[in-house]
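[job 0412] stage=fold_complex status=start
inputs:
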Amino acid sequence: MEAAAAPRRPEGLDELTLRRAQRGDERAWRDLIEHYQRSVHALVWRLLAGRARHRTEDLVQETFVRVLRALPTFDPAGAATLSTWILTIATRLVLNELRRPEPASLEREPLGGERADHASERARLGAAIASGVAKLPEGQRAVLVLREYHDLDYAEIADVLELDVGTVKSRLSRAREQLRDHLIAIGVRHEQ
Amino acid sequence: MSNDLDFEAWEAPPPPDGLADAVVARMGGTAVGLAMPDAQGDVPRRRRWVIAASAAAVLVAAGGIWAIVRHREPAPAQNGAVIADRAQHLELGGASVDLDRGAEIHWHRTGDGLDVDQRAGTAVWRVSGDERIVIGATVASIEAAGASLRVEVPMIPISKTDARVVGASALTAAAVAMVTVVVYEGRVKVSSSGQTVVVQPGTTYTVRTPEPAPVVGVAAPRVPVDQPTIVVLGLEGWNGDAVPHDLVEALRARAKLGTGPFVLAAASEKELVDEKLLHDCANEAPACMAAIGSDLGATAVMYGSIASQRAGYVVTIKLLDVAQKQVVRTITELIPSGESQGAALGGWANRIYEKFIGDAILYDDAVSATVTGSPNPATIERMLAPHEGELAACLGKDVPGASVIFTLDADGHVSTDAVDGDTPDGATAKCILDVLDTLSFPKSGSGGKYAHYVHPVSCDVDALVAEGNSRMGTGDHVGALAKYEEAIACKPEERLYDLAFMAACNSANATKAAQHWSKMHSGAQTRLLQICIRNGITREQLDASMCDVDQLRNNGMEAEQGGRHAEALAKFEQAIRCQPSAQLYQLSFMAACNAKSVSKSQYYWSKLPIAHRDSLQQICLRNGITAETLEGLPQPSPPDKASGMGQVRIDSVPQAKIIFDGVDSGTTPVLIKALPGKHKVTYVIGQDRFTYSVTVKAGYTETLSKDLQ
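[job 0412] stage=fold_complex status=done
writing structure:
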């Protein structure tokens, strides 16, 4: 599978397309999905690190189905941008998924196994980050991924996860600390 | 830590292909490359997306793509075509069909249901109660819901004798197209030549064509001219780009030259999308298109569609023979982007036009030639047109018109005993025969039998009004009403409805008063209402007539066709107040756009079914009402003419990154200000780059919209 460019927060959907999508225009729906799919897919895929990655596609689909169903109620002039609103839906779906007990019979996906080229330093780092994120509690994991990979600010993350900003800051701090310890422990990073 | 750790080293894979299709399908939309949702979403299983092209050996063209997903049955394609090389069964959503060997069907799903073009062969259709299917079958349009039926579309070679038996008179054709509909259950509507018949279960209905020569019994023909006329309708699929508009103008300019078999019909400045709406044509079935051509007074109709693609513009144009109700030729051309402007586009228009007329043997001037088989009815009509006056003079003063059937022999002579039809007496028949005898019809292999409608002597509106006025003066309101109504029948003018209303009120005839009231303008209604009130007829009684939805719609259509868009809109709105319907909203949208009413256009835009918006939007676009305006969004600031700048609106499907003159300019849609002159626009989609040129004019906004899928 070809690696994707890092999906940061996409530019906002143009207003005309959004308005049409809100009215149920199928072509606008497609435009909206294609506009945000990389970002949503990357978010779901990362949040599922170490867990049932095969659920990624289902959850991405489910995210967009919920987005389209709720789209007529979305207020473009409201507090949340469309991008944040969509990421909120995706995040909550994944967190619900993470709270489910995994069937014992199911094999876990190999962490970082997507890149077999361990000779590459960067690939090693990627695999190490993946394994470190997988060890994070779900709350910390979500904060870290939204902050580091989707550029959400503290207030937006607080809205997405329905937390206080202070809680977001402390969870982010603990997540970074835990990840750093993990990277040091496996020799990818040295103590400073 | 976030500052010094390369988080990007943990790369996420790209989303799977077909995600949008899968989601839209789950939402109940159009599925292309469909991926269905898992009904047991909470049961983790390994799945993968498998999208495969149809394995159906005979699936042809039309973009029909099947999807096989997660071991389910193939989802029905939204559009496609099949020529069955053996007996075959197809599931098409709410309908299924069993095709006999050789049957050919083309289908596409619209917001309203399934549109099918059954071009040949026999098919048994089963349509569920919540499905609506319209089958265009050469000479008939068949509409069914909750029904099962068999449709047979053979091409039957017939002899002259057979032709008489089946009622066809145009023996020029070696074949007669025929459609047979057998209804097993449910109600099925069959429309042909403007007539609609409901076919009951257990019955068989057959439609044959060609009809016995030219139209019989219609009101005054618009174009009784020597030369056949052609109307060139605006292409469907216009999205604000100049190319479709320029191409149609160039085609019309070519037709205006008058060289070749046609001259451009007077009413040629019409748009296909508008005319389909006005004639309630769900699709471009030949019968419906022929009705449009007939109303526009044309012998032939040129119409079609245009689509912008990565390589240029794909143009599909058809030529329809109005009398025969048949498409005589279809041409599809790709006009490269580089040849889509100026003289190059004009050259394409000429080539397309000449491709049509080069083969339009039906319209060759064969009057003096010996033709094989029988002379074409259109040729005979052309010969009769200059003699309309003489023929009309044969009719008595009180004869409203007559259809005449006559026979030509192989030498082009009219058989002496062959005039029949609805002529009132022998003297009239002899008179008509004498006129026909003076004409030199073409020699032919077999001669033929023809029908012609002789229109009545023209009536004198002013004389009828004067007589009505005179009767009003003597208090003979009933007599006056009769004269005014005669005048209306002769030539329906606004003032005549006012007079008839006045006479009806004064004769205390509430029914007639209401009938004429519905045709009056609101100003006249306000002014003249008191006449009825003082005769005991109330406003409520009059308004009751206003809820004749069909009448209101027809009046609106008449006004729209006459270019009276505001009046048309008022009529459609009146009809909506009585009984709203999707069709009335569409008609109102069209009238509002053509009347350049922004607020009304916005309102009716919001009422249009989503599936119809793409095709109808062009009506407003060509009237300067933009997509942003329709959506109620702020208009992009107009280019400042004084500054010498222009603008380019760039759009695409799918969304693309735009490089304008080498400068990264965002993603589509974008609006870019630019200096006048030629500019280079590159669309970037992944690794693909598509480059076009656009010419900007000071003070104008050009549109460059591309389908790059």
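[job 0412] summary: The longest helix of chain B spans residues 342-358.
[job 0412] exit 0
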